[in-house]
TrEMBL record:
This is X-Pro dipeptidyl-peptidase. Transmembrane segments: none annotated. GO terms for molecular function: dipeptidyl-peptidase activity. The keyword Protein transport does not apply.
Amino acid sequence: MTTLIKQSFFVYLITSITLVGTARAQAKASPDDKYDKKDVMIPMRDGIHLHTVIYTPKEANEPLPFLMERTPYGAENFPSPEKIPYYKDMAEDGYIFVCQDIRGRYGSEGAYVMQRLPRNKKDPKAIDESTDTYDTFDWLLQHVPGNNGKAGMLGVSYDGWTTEMGAIDPHPCLKAVSEQAAHADMFLGDDFHHNGAFRLSYSFEYAFMEEISKTDSLFPFTLYDTYEWYLQLGPLSNVNKNYFHNKLPSWNNFAQHPNYDSYWKERAVQLQLDSPRVPNLNVAGWWDQEDFYGPVTAYETWEKNDRHHFNHMVIGPWNHGQWAFQKGDKLGNISFDSATGEYFRKNIQAPWFAFYLKGKGDGHFAEAITFQTGSNTWKNYDSWPPRQAIPKNLYFQAGGKLTFDKPAANNDQYDSYVSDPAHPVPYRNRPIEQTYGPDSRWYTWLTEDQRFVHNRADVLSWETDTLQQDITVTGKLIAQLFAATSGSDADWIVKLIDVYPQQYPKEPKMAGYQFMVANDVFRGRFRKSFEKPEPVTPGKIESYAIDLHTLNHVFLKGHKIMVQVQSTWFPIIDRNPQTYVPNIFEAKESDFRAATHKVYRSANAPSHIQLPVME
Ligand code: PG9
């Protein structure tokens, strides 16, 4: 790691307003702060000390609660709370703010373990993120004067996950939390895999960033366009051979656990979250490029046992953590007509903590508050997804059409393409800057205009006629593909797209824009089981049910609905060799072969998307 790279990463940290957890570095503490700032090393039960930054207001009229965030991204970057949008409204209400480096990161002692497993409770000496949280609160209550004996926790992504870990076995002082964009299941839907397909560029760069040293480091790519770099990398076995040399535990685990085995299941929060023991506000962004599956799954899991009505859901039109730092009136090229991030911070997040930690407000929080895009309005629901939606199938038809009528007669009709791992479809417009690199467009890629791949021979599309009325889609979406390949494995990527009118006076440059409102990838070998993959029989029509998650979007009158299907999304998803090998991390160069894929649209194999339509 050269100094140059580290410096450029630092410049990025300071200028970026989107890298969650580290974006705080944009505002450094200054002498006119309204806070007394203390850096302390707090002892844990096993003698390890954790570096903790405490901001206590210089003036307070009453004892104050703690608000704590625990992070792997550097508590030293935590500026005065009134200077960061995330905390500004709450700073005005009055809290003692605490930010702590988790074990082994930045200023804390001990060993870092990515996604540390919950401890064995039979071992009195065992530690985990939950005991570290508990021990920290014990210390804070005794050593920080002026506290009211109550505490809250919040954080985005990794810091959201440490919030969950603090809440599963809570210290009695913990009265409310907000888990925001925490990952739930790294094999099924968050940072490292989606439906078993490996998120190559993210996983490679993140494992390096977190595990090569105690502080964050960027991988020293030799090419600016990482599409080209990952293509030249060749088979995944070259990662350890040429770069990581078996030194990064997370990468080794990716390579050794290619299927949904106990390694992944033990880390999935579906197993860890039972009945919510403190009120929790789950927060997600519709275009979260890292962890959308996570908070929605945490909400669903906790909801099963929510006896005290502690569990709530908020979803806004945001990328990963955008609600914490930005105005939120726009994401990439898409406008939302109001400052949704500011709205969340002032009208949802601040009242949430003020009620539970300071006894202020009426405590009426809707079960689910989600921002409906298209109509660009906030909506409250008494369940998420709401029960009123009626599932309707939108079928793929001949001539690139998409209609609500099931294909009649004719069997075995299909559209086809050749998918070649040597020429994968880029997941975003090239150049693909490294994920967290300077000027990276990673944060907005999910909102990019899909016309950049629309006419490729290896991307199929079907679209409706111009809509004569609005279609409101609220709830869970599923793509049902009937497809075959000449190979023995294949990836299937499905994208649901809102096509803007070709004349669009409201915003002329958006005319014809192909705005992706839902998407996901499915690795064919897992069609019957994520635990036990199976080769696909060449030429056989197989059925693939692909979870496109939830949505709240109005396809407006005058727009069209489009579906695109493709089989590569590089380098966010690694290349499927299309020749079945038991472990793709061990595939040889010669295993990667072009294959012909067929997507069926006939009476016996009616590929479609199931939409939850609100009447
Ligand atoms: N998405 C990041 C993450 C990666 C891996 C594990 C947990 C979280 C993050 O933003 O923190």
